[in-house]
Amino acid sequence: MESKRQQKYAKLIQKEIGDIFQKDAKHLVGRAMITVTHVLVSPDLGLAKVYLSFLLADPESTYKLINDHKKEIRHQLAKRIGKSVRVIPELAFFPDDSASYAQHIEKVISDLEIPKAPSEEEDEDTED
């Protein structure tokens, strides 16, 4: 369970990294739309796990590019939140595959062969 402080840090980092991808890191991501879906912060606030979702881009190559420029992204984050926090956390980026997982589960459910339930009239007839 995350503390209120961790949750506050996580929201701040999520908002700022999202802004960085939209404005400051256009040279890195090009036309790709990157969404910061979730951020988890360690109890000592020294590590932030950032989950990303990609649109209009190849996820693997974009993810690799972001990981290669992690230091630059952290520097941009430090410029934005450095005055309001003590420690700028190390960033660990992870691809968020919850959307593809949801599609997979939806497909599995739609492919199920579910027999129709007997109607109430048929139930009453069999009970007599």
UniProtKB/TrEMBL annotation:
Gene Ontology terms, MF aspect: ribosomal small subunit binding
Q: Output the GO biological process annotations, alphabetical, semicolon-separated.
A: maturation of SSU-rRNA
Q: What organism is listed for this UniProt entry?
A: Algoriphagus machipongonensis
Describe the function of this protein: One of several proteins that assist in the late maturation steps of the functional core of the 30S ribosomal subunit. Associates with free 30S ribosomal subunits (but not with 30S subunits that are part of 70S ribosomes or polysomes). Required for efficient processing of 16S rRNA. May interact with the 5'-terminal helix region of 16S rRNA.
GO CC, one annotated term: cytosol
What name is this protein filed under? Ribosome-binding factor A
User: Where is it localised?
Assistant: Cytoplasm
Record keyword Cytoplasm present: yes
SUPFAM superfamilies assigned: Ribosome-binding factor A, RbfA
According to the record's subunit comment, the protein's assembly and interactions are: Monomer. Binds 30S ribosomal subunits, but not 50S ribosomal subunits or 70S ribosomes.
Q: What is its main location?
A: cytoplasm
| Family in the record | Belongs to the RbfA family.
Q: Which domain of life is it from?
A: Bacteria
| Keyword Cytoplasm attached | yes
Pfam family name, one: RBFA
